[in-house]
Design a protein that fits this description.
nine-stranded mixed sheet, alpha/beta, 541 residues, Rossmann fold, 3 domains
């Protein structure tokens, strides 16, 4: 007996009992039955597979226990629409913070498109504009939520779930203690909202609530999967009774749609990121401690949403070398990029540094900042680097990025590949060795023209010292422009920083600086920041 929809079984049975069918030879009739069962079974299976919501959840896992460094990887989620809801969190019609209200107005039409697509696939839409229930009190959508029977829970359904230190640390990564408004001048908070933003359509089959009713309705409907979108990540999206903390604590499968959200963050406050950088940091916090995040692309098939004012280039930092601990130094330096860039970190695996979890993010990057030493990669991962560079995108390399992807005088292990010509092809360098440790390197500008170069702007060259051994890199390729020259006693000077115009048309900035002691100097960090700014500006169409 094949397994299929009962109505299909009924129609098939009726057909097989017809006079025409009964006059056929038994073997032919059996073949028809088997074929019909096969087609019905596989048709139903195909429909079930096609009906699933296929989401790509971005998650963060600690590189090693207590390291404070996090791999960013993806996991595939396949959810039944009937077991899934979208929670629309506090997308109000107005806000006391006018920049916030403007961003909600910009976001709402795009969010409505996501909601419409999900609704058509059978996902329940829960509209949750807190403190506005009087506006909806006579609507069937409001009454639907109110009618859901109370469901007993082991953990209380508080009105607000505050930060849980034992799970997520003592503070969020942004300081929102001033209310988070980026108004100039600041304004005092008040309840400016009366309803959900009108650009978000509410359909007959939706529900409206701002309380534990959301969870009760989920339980009534057999909903286990929750997609949260709305504002603000650092406040309502985390704390409301229908949102992330509470739903995770109640055992639901939760994701945040990270391009359908915003934050209440004022950039002059710590950590002095851009407003959108502040949102990124809270999203990162959620991925580390609460749940995966997804993109609206998974629902609509269209490009992710970005606010019009968010024009930050995307920098991917790849750190995998054990000698100078640049995974720590670059993680600290990342903070200085938050004002101008979206930043993704890729670290080497703690057991095998030639494995780079999450490297796929480089495919969408505008700039690569590389610190790797003698790694031999899986073919598909080296191909990501090759493709990125061949596309003409810019590269910043530090210290051991002169020999990142090959062993010294050895072939790669089986199943791994190398790139021995990286230094010459990408950096325009000629690394052969380094002088012994000991003397600090004195640095000077390579020429009068170099002094005026934007990469050296506000860099205290006279006060900057190379704290690691001086690399032997001469002669440079003719395609290079030296910027800094290093000197140690009784040795020939060597280029320490330069630009290279690659054959593919892209730009590389390389410096043999990158020792831990170099990162301790503000002038070196300024040099790196200038290089990132210059290369992305030069590479913007």
């Amino acid at each position: 007996m094949c397994t299929a929809d009962l109505s299909l079984q009924s129609r098939s049975a009726h057909r097989f009992q017809s006079p025409v069918t009964m006059t056929r030879p038994p073997l032919a009739r059996m073949r028809q039955i088997l074929l019909s069962c096969f087609l019905v079974f596989n048709g139903v299976a195909a429909l079930a597979t096609d009906d699933l919501l296929h989401l790509t959840g971005r998650v963060r896992t600690e590189v090693s226990p207590g390291a404070g460094l996090w791999h960013t990887t993806s996991q595939s989620l396949a959810w039944k629409p009937a077991e899934t809801c979208i929670v629309v969190c506090d997308m109000w019609d107005d806000h006391w913070c006018k920049p916030s209200a403007a961003r909600v107005a910009e976001l709402a039409p795009h969010m409505n498109e996501v909601i419409r697509s999900a609704r058509q696939r059978g996902v329940l839409i829960l509209h949750c504009p807190s403190d506005t229930m009087d506006f909806y009190k006579d609507t069937p959508q409001r009454q639907r939520a109110q009618a859901a029977p109370v469901f007993p829970t082991e953990k209380p359904l508080e009105r607000w779930v505050r930060l849980i230190p034992e799970r997520e640390g003592n503070a969020l990564p942004i300081d929102d203690s001033d209310g988070g408004c980026d108004c100039d001048p600041p304004v005092s908070s008040h309840r400016a909202w009366t309803r959900q933003h009108p650009a978000l359509e509410i359909h007959d089959e939706d529900a409206i609530t701002d309380s534990a009713e959301a969870f009760y309705l989920m339980k009534q409907r057999g909903i286990r999967n929750v997609i949260v979108m709305g504002v603000h990540t650092n406040m309502c999206v985390l704390g409301r009774p229908f949102s992330i903390r509470q739903m995770v604590l109640q055992g639901q499968n939760v994701v945040l749609m990270r391009d359908m959200t915003d934050s209440m963050y004022n950039p002059p406050r710590s950590p002095q990121a851009s407003h959108f950088g502040g949102t990124d940091l809270v999203v990162r916090h959620i991925e580390q401690f609460w749940c995966p995040t997804v993109l609206s692309t998974d629902i609509t098939g269209k490009a992710p949403f970005r606010f019009a004012e968010d024009r930050r280039p995307h920098v991917v930092i790849v750190a995998s070398e054990p000698e100078y601990r640049t995974e720590v130094s670059l993680t600290s330096f990342e903070r200085e990029l938050w004002k101008d860039f979206r930043v993704s970190m890729v670290y080497g695996d703690s057991m095998d540094g030639s494995l780079l979890p999450g490297l796929d993010v480089l495919k969408s990057a505008d700039l690569l900042l590389l610190s790797a030493r003698r790694r031999t990669l899986q073919p598909e991962q080296l191909a990501i680097f090759r493709d990125f560079i061949a596309s003409g995108k810019p590269v910043v390399g530090i210290r051991t990025a002169s020999h990142p992807f090959h062993l010294r005088n050895q072939k790669p292990p089986q199943g791994r590949v190398d790139w021995p010509g990286f230094d010459a092809e990408v950096n325009g360098g000629h690394y052969t060795n380094h002088h012994g440790a000991g003397p600090t390197t004195t640095l000077v500008a390579a020429s009068d023209r170099a002094v005026l170069h934007p990469i050296l702007r506000d860099v205290d060259v006279a006060g900057l010292k190379g704290m690691g051994s001086l690399y032997q890199v001469s002669p440079l390729a003719s395609s290079t422009e030296p910027l800094l020259i290093g000197q140690i006693p009784e040795k020939s000077p060597e280029p320490v920083a330069w630009l290279n115009r690659r054959n593919d048309g892209g730009l590389t900035f390389y410096t043999s600086l990158g020792h831990t002691g170099d990162f301790e100097q503000p002038a070196f960090r300024r040099l790196l920041l200038n290089a990132c700014r210059f290369l992305t500006a030069e590479s913007t169409p």
